[in-house]
Amino acid sequence: xKTNNAIIVVMLILAVGxxxxxxxxxxxxxxxxxxxxxxxxxxxxxxxxxxxxxxxTSPVPKKDSMGMDYVPVYEKDQSEGGQLNISxxxxxxxxxxxxxxxxxVLDRAVRATGRIEIDERRIFLIAPKFEGWLEKLYxxxxxxxxxxxxxxxxxxxxxxxxxxxxxxxxxxxxxxxxNADQAARDSMKQLAEASRLRLKNWDIGDAxxxxxxGDASTQNITFRAxxxxxxxxxxxxxxxxxxxxxxxxxxxxxxxVWVVAEVAEQDIAAISLGAMARVEVDAYPExxxxxxILFIYPTLDTVTRTVKVRLExxxxxxxxxxxxxxxxxxxxxxxxKVLTVPASAVIDSGTRQVVLVQLAEGRFExxxxxxxxxxxxYVELLDGIAEGEQVVTSANFLIDSESxxxxxxxxxxxxxxxxxxxxxxxxxxxxxGTLDEIYEDGSVSxxxxxIKALGWPAMTMDFEVANSSLTGGxxxxxxxxxxxxxxxxxxxxxxxxxxxxxxxEGR
Length: 507
Fold this sequence. Notes:
- The chain is an alpha+beta fold.
- It has six domains: 30 residues; 43 residues, no CATH class; 105 residues, conserved putative lor/sdh protein from methanococcus maripaludis s2 fold, CATH 2.40.420.20; 119 residues, no CATH class; 79 residues, Efflux pump adaptor protein, beta barrel domain (Elongation Factor Tu (Ef-tu), domain 3); 72 residues, CATH 2.40.50.320.
- It has seven helices and 31 strands.
- The strands form seven sheets. Strands 4, 6, 21, 22, 23, 24 and 25 form a seven-stranded antiparallel sheet that branches.
């Protein structure tokens, strides 16, 4: 009996061991896709796609003719509405930046070019209203700086002397007839007043006619500068005879100058009277001048399609010279806050404007927008995005995701007739290169040699890998032999890869 019992115990142990071995073997050889699906039960698998990018799919795990596993496509990884998925590693590597769509005062400025001109209201002519001779000149050169009240020249005029004496005699006669009858006094007063008005009309004041003692002035009159400025024109020559109304000097006050700028037709609505502007000239690149719009010309130049605008600019030190060229920046801040996006975020295709909206980390959606007025750094947003959304401002990653972007933008049109079915290309190209990096999503960065069949030079590119197992055992920095196949136009996939042991020529 003991022997039989021992045999039974041994048989039970063997049975348990065989069952455990069988279960372990079954567990070890369980299909990878099934195990992965169990671990990701919360993320539903929609279907399995061909690892080569071909059009056939499968509802269950399978292998292709080369023995590669079909790749599962998960529900949460399926792009919706033309969305783009980019791995976080690529986002960080490419330096993708985003900014919030918000209400801002649009930093818009109208830029124009112009010329410095003399303020016409500050030009003064020295033109005596009587005939005479120039006895002496005190200002002898054009361009000379003069101050208000400074002596310009002395004149001798018999006609002026006669009027002066007449005025002096009438004034003295009026004083001498203090005890005469009223009619005599009134007549003398009228004569004196007529003489005074005559001299006044000749711009000769009482102080120039009669000295403090009441005696007649000397044989000449001194003319003085009516304003501080520069002599723009000098026609006076010492000893010359001049006629009434002849211009002897032209003096301009340059403490304030005009800038006449030409504003483009499309910017007319952005300027208004009283608007402030900044003026820059090449002579002083480190300094700008403040100005204000005084006048907008009522006509448009049909050749240049511009409207002239006149600005007043203070010039206390005389730094701005007439005829200088100027760059004008008219500030347009009267429109208040508007919804804006950074100008660097807008991709203009020529027919429409698009921005990339960041929905989440690594998930982006191209969206058509309608823009309004443009500023230096921001663009007014009329339609397409809501306040608070994030838009991509550094779009250099579009070069790497060009094919994905084109597909996403094509899906936005909603017109199936516009979609062109791409021809599947299955021609493989054998290439040598260096494996630079393996990203988290399984894609790789490779520096490869020139590919003559495709006309590609040696360069560094990112590739999708048909199966993640292809990179197994190969470390970044290794030289490799690999094959690429064009899955879709512009989208190349690596179908085989192995470490390259032999030496080959560098790129």
